[in-house]
Design a protein that fits this description.
With 210 residues, this protein is α/β, with parallel strands linked by helices. Helices cover 17% and strands 20% of the residues. It has one domain. The chain is elongated, with a radius of gyration of 20 Å. 19% of the residues are buried.
Amino acid sequence: MGDAGDGGDASILRESTTPSVILPIRGHNSTVPIRLFNDTHFGPRSSKDKSWTPFSHLPTELRLHIWQLFVQQHRLIEVDISTPFYRNDPEQPARYYTDCNHLGNVVSGRGYELEIRGPGGYAAALSPLFGVNHEARQVALNFYRVRLPFAGNGIHRELCLNPEYDVLYVQPGYLHTALLPDLLHDVRAYDPKDQGYGSIPQTLFPSQTC
Protein backbone atom coordinates (compact mmCIF):
# COMPACT_ATOMS: atom_id res chain seq x y z
CA MET A 1 0.00 0.00 0.00
CA GLY A 2 1.33 3.46 -0.78
CA ASP A 3 0.53 6.97 -1.92
CA ALA A 4 0.03 8.16 -5.46
CA GLY A 5 3.76 8.55 -5.92
CA ASP A 6 4.54 4.89 -5.23
CA GLY A 7 5.68 2.81 -8.14
CA GLY A 8 3.30 -0.15 -7.91
CA ASP A 9 -0.06 1.53 -7.38
CA ALA A 10 -1.41 0.46 -10.77
CA SER A 11 -0.72 -3.24 -10.42
CA ILE A 12 -4.44 -4.05 -10.26
CA LEU A 13 -5.25 -2.31 -13.52
CA ARG A 14 -5.16 -5.43 -15.65
CA GLU A 15 -6.52 -5.95 -19.10
CA SER A 16 -9.57 -8.18 -18.99
CA THR A 17 -9.20 -11.08 -21.42
CA THR A 18 -11.48 -13.51 -19.60
CA PRO A 19 -13.95 -15.17 -21.98
CA SER A 20 -17.57 -15.68 -21.18
CA VAL A 21 -18.23 -18.67 -18.97
CA ILE A 22 -19.83 -21.60 -20.79
CA LEU A 23 -22.83 -23.00 -18.95
CA PRO A 24 -25.29 -25.73 -19.99
CA ILE A 25 -28.88 -24.69 -20.62
CA ARG A 26 -31.58 -27.10 -19.54
CA GLY A 27 -33.66 -28.34 -22.42
CA HIS A 28 -30.93 -27.71 -24.98
CA ASN A 29 -28.34 -30.08 -26.39
CA SER A 30 -25.66 -27.44 -26.71
CA THR A 31 -24.10 -24.78 -24.57
CA VAL A 32 -24.09 -21.05 -25.15
CA PRO A 33 -21.77 -18.42 -23.69
CA ILE A 34 -23.23 -16.59 -20.72
CA ARG A 35 -21.40 -13.70 -19.12
CA LEU A 36 -21.56 -13.83 -15.34
CA PHE A 37 -21.31 -10.80 -13.08
CA ASN A 38 -18.10 -12.07 -11.48
CA ASP A 39 -16.71 -14.07 -14.38
CA THR A 40 -13.17 -12.83 -13.73
CA HIS A 41 -13.05 -15.17 -10.72
CA PHE A 42 -13.35 -18.16 -13.04
CA GLY A 43 -10.78 -17.08 -15.64
CA PRO A 44 -7.07 -17.95 -15.81
CA ARG A 45 -4.77 -15.82 -13.70
CA SER A 46 -1.32 -14.79 -14.75
CA SER A 47 1.51 -14.55 -12.27
CA LYS A 48 3.33 -12.05 -14.48
CA ASP A 49 3.71 -8.61 -12.92
CA LYS A 50 1.56 -6.17 -14.89
CA SER A 51 2.27 -3.07 -12.85
CA TRP A 52 2.85 0.14 -14.77
CA THR A 53 5.37 2.32 -12.98
CA PRO A 54 4.64 5.59 -14.87
CA PHE A 55 1.04 5.51 -13.58
CA SER A 56 2.00 7.47 -10.46
CA HIS A 57 3.34 10.29 -12.66
CA LEU A 58 0.06 10.82 -14.50
CA PRO A 59 -1.96 13.97 -13.73
CA THR A 60 -4.19 13.56 -10.68
CA GLU A 61 -7.37 14.10 -12.72
CA LEU A 62 -6.43 11.27 -15.08
CA ARG A 63 -5.54 8.88 -12.25
CA LEU A 64 -8.87 9.58 -10.55
CA HIS A 65 -10.70 8.94 -13.81
CA ILE A 66 -8.92 5.58 -14.21
CA TRP A 67 -9.77 4.58 -10.63
CA GLN A 68 -13.38 5.54 -11.28
CA LEU A 69 -13.56 3.45 -14.44
CA PHE A 70 -12.07 0.49 -12.58
CA VAL A 71 -14.52 0.59 -9.69
CA GLN A 72 -17.63 0.81 -11.89
CA GLN A 73 -18.24 -2.93 -12.10
CA HIS A 74 -21.49 -4.81 -11.60
CA ARG A 75 -21.24 -7.43 -8.88
CA LEU A 76 -23.41 -10.33 -7.74
CA ILE A 77 -22.99 -10.76 -3.98
CA GLU A 78 -24.42 -13.94 -2.46
CA VAL A 79 -25.48 -13.43 1.14
CA ASP A 80 -26.83 -15.75 3.83
CA ILE A 81 -28.98 -14.01 6.45
CA SER A 82 -29.87 -15.52 9.81
CA THR A 83 -30.52 -14.66 13.42
CA PRO A 84 -28.18 -15.88 16.18
CA PHE A 85 -29.90 -18.11 18.70
CA TYR A 86 -29.20 -15.76 21.62
CA ARG A 87 -31.48 -13.17 20.01
CA ASN A 88 -34.38 -15.28 21.19
CA ASP A 89 -33.30 -14.82 24.79
CA PRO A 90 -36.22 -13.18 26.67
CA GLU A 91 -33.68 -11.61 29.06
CA GLN A 92 -32.53 -9.28 26.26
CA PRO A 93 -35.16 -6.63 25.49
CA ALA A 94 -35.77 -5.98 21.82
CA ARG A 95 -35.15 -2.52 20.34
CA TYR A 96 -36.65 -2.91 16.91
CA TYR A 97 -36.90 0.25 14.78
CA THR A 98 -36.12 2.59 17.66
CA ASP A 99 -32.42 3.52 17.28
CA CYS A 100 -30.90 5.81 14.66
CA ASN A 101 -27.56 5.50 12.87
CA HIS A 102 -24.96 8.22 12.23
CA LEU A 103 -27.05 9.50 9.30
CA GLY A 104 -30.04 10.07 11.59
CA ASN A 105 -32.04 7.28 9.97
CA VAL A 106 -33.95 4.64 11.94
CA VAL A 107 -32.39 1.18 11.69
CA SER A 108 -34.14 -2.15 12.13
CA GLY A 109 -32.12 -3.30 15.13
CA ARG A 110 -32.91 -6.93 14.29
CA GLY A 111 -29.38 -8.09 15.01
CA TYR A 112 -29.26 -10.47 12.04
CA GLU A 113 -26.03 -12.04 10.91
CA LEU A 114 -24.74 -12.08 7.34
CA GLU A 115 -22.36 -14.47 5.66
CA ILE A 116 -20.83 -13.60 2.31
CA ARG A 117 -20.67 -16.76 0.22
CA GLY A 118 -18.75 -17.61 -2.90
CA PRO A 119 -14.99 -17.67 -3.66
CA GLY A 120 -13.09 -15.50 -1.21
CA GLY A 121 -16.05 -14.80 1.08
CA TYR A 122 -16.05 -11.37 2.68
CA ALA A 123 -12.63 -10.44 1.28
CA ALA A 124 -13.90 -10.92 -2.27
CA ALA A 125 -16.74 -8.46 -1.59
CA LEU A 126 -14.20 -5.70 -0.95
CA SER A 127 -12.93 -3.68 -3.88
CA PRO A 128 -9.17 -4.07 -4.36
CA LEU A 129 -8.97 -0.28 -4.47
CA PHE A 130 -9.35 -0.27 -0.67
CA GLY A 131 -5.84 -1.73 -0.43
CA VAL A 132 -3.98 0.33 -3.03
CA ASN A 133 -3.38 3.79 -1.59
CA HIS A 134 -5.24 6.71 -0.02
CA GLU A 135 -6.26 8.14 -3.38
CA ALA A 136 -7.76 4.89 -4.69
CA ARG A 137 -9.35 4.12 -1.32
CA GLN A 138 -11.17 7.46 -1.34
CA VAL A 139 -12.57 6.74 -4.79
CA ALA A 140 -13.84 3.36 -3.56
CA LEU A 141 -15.39 4.91 -0.43
CA ASN A 142 -17.23 7.49 -2.52
CA PHE A 143 -18.45 4.86 -4.98
CA TYR A 144 -19.58 2.29 -2.39
CA ARG A 145 -21.58 4.86 -0.48
CA VAL A 146 -23.66 2.31 1.47
CA ARG A 147 -21.60 0.84 4.29
CA LEU A 148 -23.87 -1.61 6.08
CA PRO A 149 -22.56 -2.82 9.45
CA PHE A 150 -23.22 -6.47 10.18
CA ALA A 151 -22.08 -9.32 12.38
CA GLY A 152 -20.92 -12.67 11.15
CA ASN A 153 -19.20 -15.44 13.08
CA GLY A 154 -18.78 -13.07 16.01
CA ILE A 155 -16.96 -10.45 13.90
CA HIS A 156 -18.39 -6.99 13.21
CA ARG A 157 -17.76 -5.77 9.67
CA GLU A 158 -19.15 -3.46 7.01
CA LEU A 159 -20.63 -4.52 3.67
CA CYS A 160 -19.77 -1.80 1.15
CA LEU A 161 -22.42 -1.49 -1.56
CA ASN A 162 -23.46 0.60 -4.51
CA PRO A 163 -27.14 -0.23 -5.12
CA GLU A 164 -26.90 0.85 -8.76
CA TYR A 165 -24.14 -1.65 -9.50
CA ASP A 166 -24.42 -4.42 -6.88
CA VAL A 167 -27.01 -7.17 -6.90
CA LEU A 168 -27.67 -8.98 -3.63
CA TYR A 169 -28.54 -12.66 -3.91
CA VAL A 170 -30.08 -13.31 -0.52
CA GLN A 171 -30.20 -16.81 0.93
CA PRO A 172 -32.38 -16.87 4.08
CA GLY A 173 -30.66 -19.07 6.61
CA TYR A 174 -32.58 -21.02 9.26
CA LEU A 175 -35.81 -20.12 7.43
CA HIS A 176 -35.69 -16.49 8.63
CA THR A 177 -37.37 -15.10 5.52
CA ALA A 178 -38.97 -12.37 7.65
CA LEU A 179 -35.54 -10.73 7.94
CA LEU A 180 -35.37 -9.82 4.24
CA PRO A 181 -37.43 -6.60 4.61
CA ASP A 182 -35.22 -5.62 7.57
CA LEU A 183 -32.09 -6.05 5.47
CA LEU A 184 -33.51 -3.91 2.66
CA HIS A 185 -34.60 -1.28 5.18
CA ASP A 186 -31.11 -1.09 6.66
CA VAL A 187 -29.47 -0.80 3.24
CA ARG A 188 -31.58 2.28 2.62
CA ALA A 189 -30.99 3.59 6.15
CA TYR A 190 -27.23 3.54 5.53
CA ASP A 191 -27.51 5.11 2.08
CA PRO A 192 -26.60 8.83 2.19
CA LYS A 193 -28.88 9.28 -0.83
CA ASP A 194 -31.80 7.60 1.01
CA GLN A 195 -32.44 5.32 -1.96
CA GLY A 196 -31.18 1.83 -1.22
CA TYR A 197 -32.63 -0.88 -3.42
CA GLY A 198 -35.63 1.00 -4.71
CA SER A 199 -36.19 -1.66 -7.38
CA ILE A 200 -36.60 -5.23 -6.17
CA PRO A 201 -34.93 -6.74 -9.31
CA GLN A 202 -31.61 -5.51 -7.92
CA THR A 203 -32.12 -7.95 -5.05
CA LEU A 204 -32.65 -11.63 -5.82
CA PHE A 205 -34.57 -13.92 -3.50
CA PRO A 206 -34.36 -17.63 -4.33
CA SER A 207 -37.63 -19.49 -4.21
CA GLN A 208 -38.17 -21.65 -1.14
CA THR A 209 -39.39 -25.22 -1.24
CA CYS A 210 -40.87 -27.17 1.63
